[in-house]
Specification:
The complex is a heterodimer of chains A (about 600) and B (about 400).
Chain A (H helix, E strand, L loop, with lengths): L39 H8 L4 H10 L41 H9 L31 E12 L11 E11 L8 E7 H14 L13 H6 L2 H21 L7 H8 L12 H16 L22 H16 L11 H55 L3 H85 L5 H96 L4 H11 L2
Antiparallel strand pairs in A: 1-2, 2-3
Helix pairs in contact in A: 1-2, 2-3, 3-12, 9-11, 10-11, 11-12, 11-13, 12-13
Chain B lengths: L1 H5 L19 E11 L6 E10 L8 E7 H14 L21 H19 L8 H8 L2 H10 L8 H20 L10 H51 L2 H80 L3 H68 L2 H9 L1
Classes of the chains: A mainly alpha (about 600), B mainly alpha (about 400).
Chain lengths: ~600, ~400
């Protein structure tokens, strides 16, 4: 578990959350490699290009993920002394009102987690204060969430079954300055079922938005995995999920989220009664509807909810029929998706999804290859160190000591390289996380688009319904005009029809309004996605590239040192040996040389 | 030339007969591998070019065609004749059929064979060998005849076969008589050396294994980068303008770096892993020499024992004034001559080995120094190109965020 990361949000364009990193405040995060006399970090300046942007990397480079701490080869952490030249809170950039962060700020993001995780004890080391650069105005808002402290609880139900169910609850701590919340710190206990409820309510209430998908129920995994591991995994997922919700510009203002985060005790959101019982209800009503005993028209207020999950089976079947007619019928549906721009964007998004999936997979295998490389380097280094020790212990001749010294410098370089690879990988994984995040987001996009199409289907269905109602009414009217006399039942039927038409008209207007609303939501979200994705990908690339360049520079310097020492010895040895043996056939001169050079 | 460096002390022959002021030289090169024959019987032949001004050799230059089994013949002959010398090791026979004709394998073998011959040519004892002359100069038919005489069970001369039987015999009788340990020298320094050699082999084998895996990892990382580059280029199509261009550049750079990684893998294989493997082989060759010395010692010891018993026998016969005394005296003289010969052989081996060890250690220090230098150089170069390639992307990325 990455216990202590600092966080930073990449350029999110406009608005609120800019989190900045304090390089000096978390001494325990700084580690330098202290393998004999290596001043890599401090001398990095000299070799690195003089451009201003690179000087900022100095301080960033000294702070390497603490996940490295687990490896046995690593020395204990020590504090780096390079100042954080580009700490934005110490030296606020010139234009605090800038929408996109300055380049200096972006530099820090590659090295730190976009989605910082807390350890299980509810702490995030390092400060998580969020404020836009230089300005502490009230327009900057934050909503920080930590999920921690899983506990087993017993369901105290009044059921006949003794013992009851056990389930796990998580402590959810929120700190915020959003005024709607009416407070700054909250702490509640929630179980996973509550999260499912929250997620369902959000999907109903925010149709058309790209709502981050909730963690899976993982029924199989919960049985198969070790209890502790599974609970920890879920805790991490929950935290990520809630933070994503808190970052969504619309959802974070939602009542549902607020209630979830703040209300003590039982969560007052209506629970999602499972699909089976809803369908049962619907099935019970259906015959009544068909017989005309129960309402068979859709109420306007119901129109805003999708037919699929609701209790109105008749409506569900009507819409189903409509969709079949749309697909297979000869005539065009009454209203169609005409928004060309939308259709184009949709196609592009599906393409993006495909490419993201591939990229994500390749990124994973790249990370793995890097990891393997680092491991073998380390093993090679260790093997040579053993050899060095062996030669030194057993040395009967000086040449052996010379060779041992050469070997040692190479071995040292290899071991250092191995460490570098490990650290590089930890960072690379975090960068590529962006890809995975966006892949998860695609699911939200699918949902939002299907909200749209089901709303459209509702409109289409109602329009068809209306036209059939109208034609029935017409038929009745022409029929009654032919036959004289008050046919009470016919008059009543006509009135009923006219009633139904009125209600359905209202419902149709509602449905159309809903559809338009969802379309608008879609449009806004697509735009936001494109914008944020652009910024996030740029950061990801920058982070990756900068990371690689910096690590490779250090690596190069390490190995150059090793190469010089070997080259020096062997070249001179060779030259002298060659010239001497040209004159004398005396190998013992080489021994002399060996002795000379061993003292080198 | 790389080859000369690896053989350390340059090619040098001092011929007492050469009055000329031009210093004597003998250089050999193994080149131009060519596939001969078809199907199962196919093999690779090499051109062996000898350049020399030694009188024992024909002309300034001589070219012959040789195949791997010819080199094996040479090695075996030298091993027989020059006991005590660490014969330079040969590259292994290929165990996997698939790779027998792969370009890489052939090149590695050619390089190793080149080094092999040159080491022989520059060894002051071995370079005087008759067999070397045959190898470097004889026409192909003569070579083939010589080679086929040595194959299979005919490899061992009858005397050697007898020796093998005797060894087995004595080993069995030793065990039966309760003498479990075979007779060995009680020389503490030599014991130390033997220990050293055996342990060294283990250490080196491990290092070589890791070196080989490192080569493989370079290849895998290269492949992975190439795949990554392709996918990133596709992703570029989904993004517009500056970002798309950045992705495309990233993809292109990934592919370039992939090629560099493959090159470095090859460089590592040839200049780092191969020398390590060569080192392992050399140690194994030393082990063979150690075995030879043990044989020589045992032979010498047994003869010394036999002489002692013979003396006792003779004295008994002298006392009894048996007519067998004459015969016994005759046999005794013979035994003493054999014993002296065996002692001489053993002493020579010991002396040679002492020189060889020093030479070996120096040689290896040079070889390894070079190999490590190549390793470090290659890695530094690679890291540098990678760092530069990635850095070159930054301006484009900068353009994206300001756009």
């Amino acid at each position: 578990m990455m216990g202590s990361e600092n966080n930073n949000l990449p350029g999110k364009g406009d608005e609120e959350e800019e989190e900045f990193y304090h390089p000096l405040s978390t001494a325990d995060q700084m580690q330098t490699l202290t393998l004999d006399g290596d001043d890599d970090y401090h001398s990095l300046n000299d070799d690195v290009s003089a451009s201003k942007s690179y000087s900022n990397y100095r301080s960033a480079m000294t702070t390497i993920s603490s996940s490295v701490a687990e490896h046995p080869l690593l020395p204990p952490p020590s504090i780096a002394t390079t100042p954080a030249v580009a700490d934005p809170l110490l030296f606020p950039p010139q234009n605090p009102s800038l929408d996109s962060p300055s380049y200096a700020d972006v530099i820090f993001s590659p090295f730190h987690d976009r989605f910082p995780e807390s350890n299980g004890n509810g702490e995030i080391s390092g400060e998580v204060t969020v404020s836009s650069p230089g300005s502490q105005s009230s327009s900057s808002e934050y909503l920080n969430i930590i999920v921690s402290n899983p506990q087993k609880e017993v369901e105290s139900s009044n059921s006949i079954v003794p013992g009851g169910n056990t389930y796990v609850t998580y402590l959810i701590t929120t700190s915020t300055n959003v005024s709607d919340y009416g407070g700054s710190d909250f702490s509640v206990r929630r179980r996973f079922k509550d999260v499912v409820t929250l997620s369902d309510r959000l999907s109903e209430g925010y149709r058309g938005f790209f709502i981050p998908p909730r963690p899976d129920k993982s029924v199989v995994e919960s049985q198969v995995m070790q209890k502790q591991d599974f609970v920890e995994q879920r805790r991490v997922e929950l935290e990520k999920y809630l933070r994503r919700l808190a970052r969504h510009p619309v959802i974070k203002k939602s009542d549902e989220l607020r209630v979830f985060l703040t209300v003590q005790g039982r969560m007052p959101l209506p629970t999602s009664i499972d699909v089976a019982s809803r369908m049962l209800d619907g099935a019970v009503r259906l015959p009544k509807q068909l017989l005309g005993e129960s309402r068979s028209v859709v109420e306007p207020q119901d129109v805003v909810h999708p037919a699929k999950g609701g209790r109105d089976m008749l409506r569900f079947f009507k819409e189903l029929k409509q969709s079949v007619v749309n697909d297979w019928g000869n005539s065009r549906p009454p209203v169609e998706e005409e928004d060309k721009e939308f259709l184009e964007k949709k196609e592009k998004l599906w393409d993006l999804e495909q490419q993201l999936t591939n990229a994500s997979k390749q990124a994973e295998s790249l990370v793995k290859a890097q990891q393997d490389m680092g491991e073998v380097m380390g093993e090679l280094g260790l093997a040579f160190i053993k050899l060095t020790k062996f030669e030194n212990e057993q040395a009967a001749l000086n040449t052996q000591r010379v060779r041992a010294a050469d070997m040692k410098s190479v071995a040292t370089a290899a071991v250092k390289a191995s460490r570098l690879y490990r650290e590089l990988n930890a960072q690379t994984v975090k960068h590529f996380d962006t890809l995975h995040e966006y892949m998860g987001l695609m699911l939200a996009v699918h949902n939002a688009f299907s909200d749209r199409s089901s709303a459209l289907l509702t409109v289409q269905t109602l329009i068809s319904e209306l036209s059939s109602l109208h034609s029935r009414a017409e038929k009745l009217e022409t029929a009654s005009s032919k036959i004289f006399g008050d046919d009470k039942s016919r008059i009543r039927k006509l009135e009923d029809l006219r009633d139904a038409i009125r209600v359905t008209e209202d419902a149709k207007s509602c449905a159309v309004r809903e559809y338009e609303r969802i379309k608008e939501n879609n449009r806004g979200e697509i735009e936001r996605l494109d914008r944020e994705r652009q910024a996030d990908f740029v950061n990801m690339l920058k982070g990756f590239v900068v990371n690689q360049a910096e690590f490779k520079s250090i690596f190069m310097k390490n190995t150059r040192v090793a190469s010089n020492s070997c080259a020096g010895r062997s070249k001179i040895l060779f030259i002298i040996a060659f010239s001497i043996t040209k004159i004398y056939r005396a190998t013992h001169y080489l021994q002399l040389l060996g002795a000379l050079l061993a003292s080198w | 030339m790389n080859v000369q460096q690896r053989s350390g002390s340059g090619p040098l022959v001092q011929s007492p007969r050469s009055p000329s002021s031009q210093s004597p030289y003998l250089t050999v090169s193994v080149s131009d591998p060519a596939k001969m024959g078809n199907g199962v019987q196919a093999y690779i032949s090499y051109k062996v070019i000898t350049k020399t001004n030694l009188p024992e050799y024909e002309g300034p230059e001589k070219i012959v065609i040789r195949r791997y089994s010819d080199f094996v013949w040479l090695r075996d002959r030298l091993f027989e004749k020059y006991k005590g010398v660490f014969i330079p090791p040969l590259p292994e026979k290929s165990t996997v059929e698939k790779f027998r004709f792969s370009a890489e394998f052939i090149e590695m073998r050619r390089q190793a064979l080149d080094v092999f011959v040159n080491r022989i040519a520059s060894h002051h004892e071995l370079q005087q060998s008759e067999d070397l002359r045959i190898f470097l100069q004889a026409d192909e038919q003569t070579m083939e005849r010589a080679r086929s005489q040595e194959t299979g069970i005919f490899k061992k001369k009858p005397a050697d076969l007898m020796q093998i039987f005797k060894d087995v015999q004595s080993k069995v009788s030793d065990v039966v008589l309760g003498k479990e340990k075979p007779v060995e020298e009680s020389n503490p320094e030599y014991e130390k050396l033997k220990n050293y050699i055996f342990q060294l082999e283990d250490h080196l084998a491990e290092a070589q294994k890791h070196a080989y895996r490192l080569v493989k990892r370079h290849r895998e990382l290269g492949q992975s980068l190439s795949d990554f580059g392709k996918v990133v280029k596709l992703l570029a199509n989904c993004e517009g303008n500056a970002l798309g261009k950045a992705f495309t550049e990233l993809g292109a750079k990934s592919e370039i770096l992939s090629i560099k990684l493959q090159k470095e893998a090859h460089h590592l294989l040839m200049n780092f892993e191969e020398p390590l493997k060569d080192y392992v082989r050399a140690v194994q060759s030393i082990k063979a020499t150690i075995a030879e010395r043990a044989n020589a010692f045992r032979h010498h010891y047994e003869l010394a024992e036999a002489i002692k018993f013979k003396e006792i026998d003779m004295n008994k016969l002298r006392l009894t004034r048996s007519e067998k005394l004459g015969e016994a005296e005759h046999e005794y003289e013979e035994l003493k001559a054999d014993g002296a010969e065996a002692a001489r052989r053993f002493d020579r081996i010991v002396k040679l080995m002492n020189e060889e060890i020093v030479r070996f250690q120096e040689q290896k220090t040079l070889d390894m120094g070079l190999a490590f230098h190549e390793f470090a150089k290659g890695q530094a170069r690679l890291a540098n190109s990678i760092a530069e390639a990635w850095r070159s992307l930054l301006p484009k990325l900068e353009a994206c965020s300001s756009a």
